[in-house]
Amino acid sequence: MKKTILIFSALLITAFSFAQKKELRAAEKALKKENLAEAKTILEGLSGTIQSADAKYIAKYYFLTGRTYQNMADKGMDTNASLKMAGEAYNKLLAFEKEQRDLTYTKEVKPSLQTMVSKLVDKAINAQNAKENAKASDFLHMAYTLQPENKDLLYFAASNSISAKDYDTALAYYEELKDAQYTGEQTKYFAINVATGKKESFTDKNIRDLSVRSKSHSNPTQEKTKSRLPEIVKNISWIYTNHVGDNDKALAAVEEAIKISPDDPSLLLTKGNLYYKMGDTAKFKEIMQEIITKNPNDVDSYYNIGVISAENGDVEEARAAYRKVLELDPGYVNAAVNLSKTYLDEASEVVDKMNQLGNSSADNKKFGEYQEEQIALYKESLKVLEGIIETVPEDVGILKQLKGLYSFLGEDEKYKKVKAKLAELGEQ
Fold first, then answer.
1. Contact 305, 328 (CB under 8 A)
2. Which domain holds residue 426?
3. Chain segment 260-310, per-residue pLDDT in tens
4. How buried is 237 (Cβ within 10 angstroms: 0-12 exposed, 13-18 middle, 19+ buried)?
5. What is this structure's pTM?
6. What are the tens digits of pLDDT across the range 387-428?
């Protein structure tokens, strides 16, 4: 009896496999005749039973399913859904054949997938050019589902979602990129064209090296592109802070990224800016100091320390920070303007004291002392502005400050020169 049952089961399996094989042939025939609706119906009927078939039939099922939906997409039959279904089928096929170590369809499917991705990217570019960023994001994300190893597609989908102000979608995409530790870093290859003397880029190291060996190019170099992780984390932080309203999650995202790239100063800056928005200026200043410890020539961090110190009333520390900025970068206009302002603000406080004095001889004496102090502070401010105006000779704001200081200090020739420059720029 047991033997009879086993034989019967074997016969059932054989009959079942034969039926599946017959259905696959029917689907293939319908596909060749471009009867796509018929092919789709047949393949849908097999979806629940195909996993019990032989490996070669499973592979063929995935292939025919992918091809059917791809052709449907090409003919405009529910294009987006068809592309998605085609991509899912093709990717299942690639994974299955890799597992089976039988690449019968893989070589044919990979170019098909790439063609589909390219078409979607073209659609995304057209949508982006038309300022339809939400559509562009959808096309790019669809392309990403077809080619999930290409995280660049997800990155650009997120960027378009930001432009479309779809912050929830952007956040989901950016979080996925962060969790995958995506950086987008690439190595670019260059060499000098011997004939033109110009630096040219190559898509591939081997091609570059062949060009050098053939003597058409020389001086091969390579450069690594900047990591996109800091930008991703900065956007995550911004969305959590300004859209979601969750500073803790924003900070957690930054901290996680710092663990991945501990030496990236831009991540520390994002962390510092977050604390600044939260009102913790002491922590912000501490982080700026941490950046300077790692990079003693980071002018922006010195500048930020200057700003925070000035806000906290620590004028001397602010001035020291601004002077350090100008020592490292003499053309850093904002540092010069802020340094100049510290002297003008202090002079304004002196003027307030002068206005509170009476007419007694003691007050008159004090008035003279204050006036000398005021003039000395104006001269310090003037010295800073004169040092920076050469960098930005047409900066109207600085020219107007110089004009006022020259007028007060009685430097008539310089006053006339600055006044003429302002008139030349259409200002008074």
1. no
2. 393-428
3. 888 788 889 989 999 998 899 999 999 999 999 999 999 999 999 999 999
4. buried
5. 0.70
6. 999 899 999 999 999 999 999 999 999 999 999 999 998 887
Is 34 a residue whose pLDDT tops 70? yes
Tokens of 128: 């982006």
pLDDT in tens, 308-343: 999 999 999 999 999 999 999 999 999 999 999 999
**Which position has the token pair 């939260």?**
278
Element (H, E) at 191: strand 187-193
55 & 197 share domain = no
**Is residue 70 in some structural domain?**
yes
- Are 77 and 220 within one domain? no
Is 305 in contact with 317 (CB distance < 8 Å)?
yes
- Residues 401, 388 contacting (CB under 8 angstroms): no
Do you know the residue count of the chain? 428
DSSP 250-282: HHHHHHHHHHHSTT-HHHHHHHHHHHHHTT-HH
Question: Does residue 7 have a pLDDT over 60?
Answer: no
Does residue 368 form part of some domain?
A: no
For residues 19 and 85, membership in a common domain is answered with yes
Instruction: Give the closest residue to 120 by CA, choosing from 90, 149, 174, 157.
Output: 157
Spatial separation of the C-alpha atoms in residues 114 and 90, rounded to whole Å: 11
Which token pair is 51?
Answer: 């996993």
Q: 226: which DSSP letter?
A: P
Give the Cα separation of 248 and 227 in Å (integer): 24
| Conformation bin of residue 286: beta by default, left when phi > 0, alpha when psi is -120 to 50 | alpha
Long-range contacts of 286-295 (CB under 8 A, 24+ apart): 291/265, 294/263, 294/265, 294/268, 295/265
